[in-house]
């Protein structure tokens, strides 16, 4: 089993279900995305650049879907929040799978990949 798969299957519910669903949406929306296991968490790269990662932060009760260049997306996608006062990263915090607006999330993924392709950086 790959380390990224092991990471998902080691998560407790509801985090495991949320992460596996988000993973499937990412992989289906962006077939060219590269899934990696970096810094002991699942990461998704486009054009050899980091785009997003999934994590369950200690002492938090949600899955953190973190966009590495999220600061460039937050005006267009107000669902992105600046959790933990991060400089550039913005994220969606999911406590329940039902809280994910899949259509909006797919648009966000596509826009994030476009920004990486254009080479925009903070």
Give the C-alpha Rg.
13 Å
Low-confidence stretches: none
Structural class: alpha+beta
Count, helices: 3
The top-level CATH class is Alpha Beta
How many structurally independent domains?
1
- The proportion of strand residues reads 15-25%
Instruction: Strand order, main sheet: write it out.
Output: 1-2-3-4-5
Gap between N and C termini: 36 Å
Helix content range of the residues, please? 25-40%
Quote the average pLDDT. Answer: 94
General form:
globular
Oligomer: single chain
Please name the CATH topology.
Aspartate Aminotransferase, domain 1
The helix-strand sequence is HHEEEEEH
CATH architecture: Alpha-Beta Complex
Tell me the total number of β-strands.
5
Major β-sheet annotation: 5 strands, antiparallel
Describe what you observe in this structure.
This protein has one domain (3-118): Alpha-Beta Complex (Aspartate Aminotransferase, domain 1). It has 122 residues and is α+β, with helices and mostly antiparallel strands. The termini are far apart. Helix content is 32%, strand content 23%. It contains three helices and five strands, in the order ααβββββα. The protein has helices at 3-9, 15-29, 102-118; strands at residues 34-38, 41-46, 49-55, 63-67, 90-94.
